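Just curious: can you write whichever protein you like plus the matching structure tokens?

***
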Amino acid sequence: MKYLKNILVLAGIAAVFATLRGRRLAVTRYKVHSGKIKGRLRIALLSDLHSFNHGSLRNPQAKLVKAIDDNNPDLVVMTGDIADHVIPHLNTKTLLRKLGKYPVFYVSGNHEYKSGEIREIKRFFRDLGADVLEGVNRKITIRGNKINICGVDDAIIGAERFKAQLLACAGQADMKNLTILLTHRPEKVNLYRKLKFDLILTGHTHGGTVIIPRFFNGIYAVNQGFLPKYAGGMYDAGRGNMVVSRGLSKSSRGLPRVFNRPELVIVDVCEE
């Protein structure tokens, strides 16, 4: 019994430590190569903020904005659940105001729809400088590189509308140029593969909530269940790669994140 008690105490201490450490912002970097680009394109990927504050009351979002600025991205993309259905939108609006110097592209997540305020949310995203993508492709040029930025609403809009938005994106894009899809849900990857996007950026999983280092990349993710295949990281997506953000929320649906820090994702697309 004595040894069992000691083990339980140590396990409890480790869990508390992992939970507290799990609220600190991390920066995760990925590199992919493409024959469709010269030099390098740097993307800051933000997902699943749920209107949490990565800063102080006096200087909200300061840590997150500094992390973005320190990496000097060419553009910022947001793949849903930046706003929340419970937490007020103040921290989301503050972040958008502080990202005014970057091109910002946004697609919705399920919690923004769940709020019942999706029209208002999209309106203030636009008013504060973000390009809201709803089944459209934006053609942009960065240092001579022509790039397609495609984006779709969350699949909560219904299977037919979701598929129609995907097809519209692909139909508008010149696939000779680097083509990036912004979408909330990684588990729809088989649909994305068919449309031959070069890079898919997504979130939704919250990193599987609990990570057990060296054993499990994540324990549970909504819409994937236990031991999710796409909890967080970079995955093969047929023609290209899919990067799944573990998200920026400081908890996962009310549960503590364990060995699973909120993350800013930096993706470098480099010439081959």
User: Anything to note?
Assistant: The chain has seven helices and 16 strands. The two ends are 60 Å apart (CA to CA). The helical segments are 2-21, 62-71, 90-98, 110-114, 118-127, 159-172, 189-194.
